[in-house]
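Exercise 7b. Backbone tokens:
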């Protein structure tokens, strides 16, 4: 869901623009297992984010205007064909909530053989990611600017993802807001159903209470197996993020969780 109107500049896209044909016409009526009670008119589940008019730089705005059409896939209730979206067949990793995209960029550069589908709602973040794609010449990242719950439910085929990254999701620290946390049983059931047998779900947080919730919820999901005895060591491929650095500065710990979809 775009939070602002993004003007188009009519500039022809350079390499492999995402075409509407990347979206299969075979609509799958995905189960609404990520749904909760509505929290606002028209919503089908409690959102893990709130729309707010955050600061956006001129560079991010400019990147949105010039590059969004080239590197993003509009949300639609149709299953995506990753081979068509990325122009090749390769392992597909979904990242939920990439923020300003620094981790996505680092990992996508380090793993050129993988395709990364980043989902983010925040305009400044999407603008920042687009700038990174342009500056680094990344070819293996595409963006969907929409609620990840709906993207997973409506656009991702069952048993299709090789991995999922969820790094430092909003912790919603107040008890009355815990219902907004992304990692809840119905969402995790939906998420696990989209991962291939043997594929992984990697989460990290700097909020101990949320880490415990993640361990409990991921551990209780029958489709998933913990690869560690409790929390996992930070894998080599995950660099330290801005949020992590801030958390560490505030004296918080950081907890990684690495689960695999059972065969
Ligand atoms: C705390 S930030 C972390 C960003 C980044 N992963 C990092 O480690 O720096 C969480 C991000 O998740 C995004 N987000 C939250 N709920 C989302 C949802 N349902 N769909 C897509 N993005 C979401 C927010 O907009 C925010 O940018």
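Sequence design result:
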């Amino acid at each position: 869901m775009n939070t602002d109107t993004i003007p188009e500049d009519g500039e022809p896209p350079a390499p492999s623009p995402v075409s509407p044909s990347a979206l299969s016409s075979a609509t799958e009526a995905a189960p609404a297992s990520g749904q909760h009670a509505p929290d606002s008119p028209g919503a089908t589940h409690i959102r893990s984010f709130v729309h707010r008019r955050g600061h956006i730089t001129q560079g991010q705005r400019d990147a949105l205007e010039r590059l969004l059409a080239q590197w993003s896939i509009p949300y639609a209730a149709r299953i995506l064909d990753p081979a068509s979206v990325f122009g090749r067949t390769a392992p597909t990793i979904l990242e939920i909530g990439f923020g300003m995209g620094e981790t996505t960029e680092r990992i996508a550069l380090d793993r050129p053989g993988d395709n990364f589908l980043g989902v983010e709602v925040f305009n400044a973040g999407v603008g920042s990611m687009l700038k990174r794609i342009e500056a680094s010449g990344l070819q293996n990242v595409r963006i969907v600017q929409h609620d990840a719950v709906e993207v997973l439910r409506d656009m991702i085929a069952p048993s299709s993802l090789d991995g999922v990254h969820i790094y430092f999701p909003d912790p919603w620290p107040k008890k009355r807001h815990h219902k907004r946390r992304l990692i809840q049983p119905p969402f995790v059931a939906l998420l696990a159903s989209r991962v291939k047998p043997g594929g992984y779900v990697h989460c990290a947080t700097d909020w101990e209470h949320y880490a415990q919730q993640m361990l409990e919820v991921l551990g209780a999901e029958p489709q998933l197996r913990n690869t560690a005895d409790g929390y996992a060591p930070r894998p080599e491929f995950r660099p330290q993020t801005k949020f992590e650095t801030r958390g560490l500065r505030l004296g918080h710990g950081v907890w990684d969780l690495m689960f695999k979809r059972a065969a």
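Instructor comment: Helices lie at 58-71, 82-86, 102-110, 123-136, 148-155, 185-194, 208-220, 242-249. The chain has a mean pLDDT of 86.
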